[in-house]
């Protein structure tokens, strides 16, 4: 059956249910349907397989019956991307959550996709190691979700992204076959690194069932400093001094509300390493921030501050959440564009920027007008144009369900879109996996 005919046909839900019962696939409850609702549209079914073999069987049945599937872990990040293009069932891997292998000497770990990031970190911490990614809500983020949504946090500046740490992956394709890329050791691999293909694909190319990561040693000391700046110009000058100073920050964050007021602009810098290295870098930062109010935290207080910073964007209330990707040097002019848009549309915003690598997250608070849909569209178009003028991009990460259908979540002008469509066609010719969720309606 061709992709076009399958998409246009009516899913055979009764046949789908009958086939699943034959293979004893567990079904979720009405509570699960609420938890896995995407942009106000609940799933028709929630499926809870207990093995990779069951995942493959479900995919085979879904392809045969014309049923759309959205892979998930715990459902914490399903607001990312566009809503599914047609009625769907959620395929949750939350029960496939074993730690398969940990090699402390090789500094690698292999886990099933349903294990939470918090559980993974706890498992390897006993060996003095950690997976150096800090996605928001790690206890509610599965390993599969971490990869599929390409999640990262403020430490992305120094530690990179999940793509940089992924050594191997096992994926169930839409036709129910298991494919592996990479392995369980860190080595150079000839040919295409297909594991990277699934990073950030939102489950549109396959269902991740297993992954291997390289680990790093836990630091002996952690310190966090918050430096208050009187305005953006002062913050810009300090950021430039930090970038060119003999320090190696774990992260550099810029926090500011919009409209901003005097003293509301804060730069957060964290250091990790040996106690001597951290102490020396703290001393250098004090010299760089001379004359400014600076608050420092170490130990458990520093860890708490980092966790608060990691989760700030997902926990903060907003009717619209945006993510811009820019060069670090273009952050100040983009913040100026945010100020202009705030005044024009009567909106208030909270800005958290990974100042070391140019990622800007913006939480837009509810406007004092009833036409929130029109405000959202106008704001997104204006800020996307501002980001593009600075050589960057802007996507919508979250918005109220009733507003999302009228928004362009990803933005246009993606040169690689034809290639992306061909990859989707090759790996999921029936359009079964997360239809319409990714760029260009993929």
Offer a few descriptive terms.
alpha+beta, Uridine Diphospho-n-acetylenolpyruvylglucosamine Reductase, domain 2, Uridine Diphospho-n-acetylenolpyruvylglucosamine Reductase, domain 3, eight-stranded antiparallel β-sheet, Alpha-Beta Plaits, 4 domains, 442 residues, 14 helices, five-stranded antiparallel β-sheet, single chain, 24% strand
**What share of residues are in beta strands?**
15-25%
Distance between the termini: 19 Å
**Low-confidence spans: pLDDT under 50, at least 5 residues?**
1-8
Structural class: alpha+beta
Question: Tally of extended strands?
Answer: 19
Q: Give Rg in angstroms.
A: 23 Å
How are strands sequenced across the largest beta sheet? 15-12-14-13-17-18-16-19
Helix content: 25-40%
How many helices? 14
CATH architecture of the largest domain: 2-Layer Sandwich
Largest sheet: 8 strands, antiparallel
Query: What's the mean pLDDT score?
Result: 91
CATH top level label of the largest domain: Alpha Beta
Whole-number total of structural domains: 4
Polypeptide structure, described:
- By secondary structure, this protein is of the alpha+beta class.
- The protein has four domains: 3-95 and 422-441, Uridine Diphospho-n-acetylenolpyruvylglucosamine Reductase, domain 2, CATH 3.30.43; 103-217, Uridine Diphospho-n-acetylenolpyruvylglucosamine Reductase, domain 3 (2-Layer Sandwich); 220-254 and 261-314, ACT domain (Alpha-Beta Plaits, 2-Layer Sandwich), CATH 3.30.70; 316-411, Alpha-Beta Plaits.
- Helices cover 33% and strands 24% of the residues.
- The chain contains 14 helices and 19 strands.
- An eight-stranded antiparallel sheet has the order 15-12-14-13-17-18-16-19, sandwiched between helices. Strands 5-6-10-8-9 form a five-stranded antiparallel sheet.
- β8 (166-172) and β9 (178-182) form a beta hairpin.
- α2 (13-22) runs antiparallel to α4 and α12 (331-345) packs antiparallel against α13 (372-389).
- Mean pLDDT is 91; it is low at 1-8.
């Amino acid at each position: 059956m061709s992709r076009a005919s399958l998409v246009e046909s009516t899913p055979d839900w009764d046949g789908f249910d009958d086939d699943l019962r034959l293979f004893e696939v567990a079904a979720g409850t009405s509570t699960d349907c609420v938890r896995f609702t995407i942009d106000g549209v609940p799933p028709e079914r929630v499926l809870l397989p207990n093995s990779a073999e069951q995942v493959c069987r479900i995919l085979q049945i879904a392809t045969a019956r014309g049923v759309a599937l959205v892979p998930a872990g715990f459902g914490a990040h399903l607001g990312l991307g566009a809503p599914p293009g047609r009625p769907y069932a959620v395929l949750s891997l939350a029960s496939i959550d074993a730690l398969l292998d940990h090699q402390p000497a090789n500094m690698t770990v292999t886990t099933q996709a349903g294990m939470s990031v918090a559980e993974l970190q706890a498992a390897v911490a006993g060996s003095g190691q950690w997976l150096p990614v800090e996605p928001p809500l790690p206890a509610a983020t599965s390993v599969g979700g971490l990869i599929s949504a390409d999640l990262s946090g403020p430490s992305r500046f120094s530690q990179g992204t999940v793509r940089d740490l992924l050594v191997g992956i096992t994926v169930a394709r839409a036709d129910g076959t298991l494919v592996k890329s990479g392995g369980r050791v860190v080595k150079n691999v000839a040919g295409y690194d297909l594991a990277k293909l699934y990073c950030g694909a939102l489950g549109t190319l396959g269902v991740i069932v297993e992954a291997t990561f390289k680990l790093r040693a836990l630091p002996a000391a952690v310190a966090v400093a918050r430096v208050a700046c009187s305005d953006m110009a002062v913050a810009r000058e300090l950021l430039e001094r930090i970038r060119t100073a003999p320090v190696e920050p774990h992260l550099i964050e810029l926090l500011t509300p919009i409209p901003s007021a005097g003293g509301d602009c804060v730069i957060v810098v964290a250091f990790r390493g040996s106690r001597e290295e951290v102490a020396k870098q703290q001393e250098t930062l004090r010299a760089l921030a001379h004359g400014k109010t600076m608050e420092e935290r170490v130990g458990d207080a520093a860890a708490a501050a980092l966790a608060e910073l990691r989760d700030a964007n997902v926990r903060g209330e907003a009717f619209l959440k945006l993510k811009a990707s820019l060069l670090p040097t273009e952050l100040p002019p983009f913040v100026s564009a945010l100020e202009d848009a705030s005044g024009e549309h009567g909106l208030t915003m909270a800005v958290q920027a990974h100042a070391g690598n140019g990622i800007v997250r913006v939480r837009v608070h509810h406007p004092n007008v009833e036409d929130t849909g029109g405000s959202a569209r106008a704001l997104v178009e204006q800020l996307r144009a501002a980001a593009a003028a600075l050589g960057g991009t802007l996507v919508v990460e979250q918005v109220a369900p009733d507003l999302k259908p009228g928004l362009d979540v990803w933005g246009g002008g993606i040169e690689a879109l034809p290639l992306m469509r061909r990859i989707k066609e090759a790996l999921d010719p029936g359009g079964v996996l997360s239809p319409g969720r990714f760029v260009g309606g993929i």
